[in-house]
Each structure stands twice: as structure tokens, then as C-alpha cells.
Amino acid sequence: KMGYPYGKVNNKPLNISAGQKIDSIYCADARYREDGFPVVMYHNGEFYGLYTIKTKKHRKNYGMQKAVKDEIFLDSITYTAFLNEPFNYADWELKNPKLAGYDEGMPITDASVSANINRLFSFLNNISTEADNHADYIVLPHWIAYFIFSELVGNSDINGNNMNILTWDGTHWSIVPYDLDVSLGLHTWDEHYIEPSMTGLITTGIAFFRNFYNAYKDDIISMYRKFREMGFISEDNLYGYYVRQVESIQ
Q1: Fewest Cβ atoms nearer than 10 Å: which of 1, 108, 138, 223?
Q2: In angstroms, rounded to a whole number, what is the distance separating the alpha carbons of residues 146 and 211?
Q3: Cα 39 from Cα 36, distance rounded (Å)
């Protein structure tokens, strides 16, 4: 829907040297996102509920190699992994690259990896004044698509939580969703529902995305209008996703 090159997700060139196996640098089945499948659960023969078994955040699913230090995958692991604050290693797990001695929540001791991460966060923290320099730091269409998606499905549990940010060259970062149990109007842990008529969930409740919206409002409107005009963002099309999800449960 986004067109090349942004629909490719990563910006990694396919450059195979003589004798090199393609699987070592390219994952044909990489989805670059969380995936899952619905299941019906029974316990001792009694219906227990409908659930989704999610895929794990394996680097192969994101087309990354563990030894390449420019291929960085950060997974938020707390409720305080804020994008409008300086990077705090305790709030994030470095899923890639693989660093000797590193474990979740530990300091990132590799100088180049740490420098690239802090460079990104410096930009994000100052996005209100640095917005025009986005091409040096982020893949803007990916962030706008994430923003629009989050508003459409009510993905409101992303204030320092439930997001993955990735780069394949150490410089240009993308953002993808993870853990959508608070979306589509539902808070699964307290049976709280969000009214469908509510809008602005992301911009009104999350400081970073409020700043992001103010910085890129025209670009956000442009992409939203494009998806509306092509029929992707429409009641009928989005409703179809819900129908197919329900129909997949036998």
C-alpha cells in the first residue's frame, strides 16, 4: 500500500557475494511484524476462551543478522520506555545485534550500537525543533503509518510500552507495533471499553505522539487521505478484517 521503497520495510540491499548462502543475508519469509493465529482454548473439556498465539520476536522474522551491529532491534520492556525522554537501557531489550554478556535491561556496552541508539533518541526528544531533519534519522512514512494505524484501532497502550523500533543501517529507524491486547476498543485486563466515537486517543494522551502529530500534521493528513481515496481506510474494508478473523475460528 505504501509503495517502493517504503513497502520494503527494511533498507538493506540484497548484495550476495560469491559462495555466500542467500539465507545468511536475506529472509524470504520475514514479516517485519508481530504475527499470530487465533485459538479456542479448553481446560478439562470446559471452554476457557478465545486467544491469539503470537509469534516470538526472532531476528529472522525481521530480516536481521545477529553479528551485524548496524541492524539494531529495540523492544520496550517496561511502562516507562518513553520516546520523548533520553534512552534508558533499563526500559529496553536489545534484541539485535547479539552482544557478548548482554542480557535484558543491562547497559549496552558496545560503543557504536550505543551511539546509534542515543543519536536516535536525541532526535526524538527534540522532534518539535528537529522535524525537518527527519531524513537523517527515521523512515518517516513508517512512523506516520504506525501513527495512523494506532489511531484507527485505538492502540492506546503505547505510552512507554508495546512498541519495537528497528534500523537496518544504524541510522534510519522504523517503528512497528507489538502486543495489541488494548485495541479495537478493549482493555483486556479490566474489561474497560473505549467508545468507537472517541478520536485523538494517541495525540491527546501520549506526549511524544502529540509532538509527532504537531511536527508532521500535513504529512499525516496526506497519507491518511491517500489511504482513504484508494479505499484501504474505509468501513467496508476494515470491517472485512474483523469478519475474516472471526471466520478463522472454527
Answers
A1: 1
A2: 15
A3: 10
What tens digit of pLDDT does each residue of 181-214 get?
A: 666 666 656 555 666 666 777 777 788 999 999 9
pTM exceeds 0.85: no
Per the CB < 8 A criterion, the answer to whether 72 and 167 are in contact is yes
Per 3-state DSSP, what percentage of the chain is helix, strand, and coil (rounded to 5)? Answer: 35, 20, 45
Cβ of 118: how many Cβ atoms within 10 Å?
13
Q: Strands 36-43 and 46-54: what pairing? A: antiparallel
The β-bridge partners of 49 are: 41
Beta-carbon contacts of 81 under 8 Å, excluding residues fewer than 6 positions away, are 88, 91, 92, 160, 161, 163
Question: What residues pair up with 165 in beta bridges, in sequence order?
Answer: 74, 175
What are the helix (H) ranges across 97-139? 111-125, 127-130
- The answer to whether 161 touches 74, Cβ cutoff 8 Å, is no
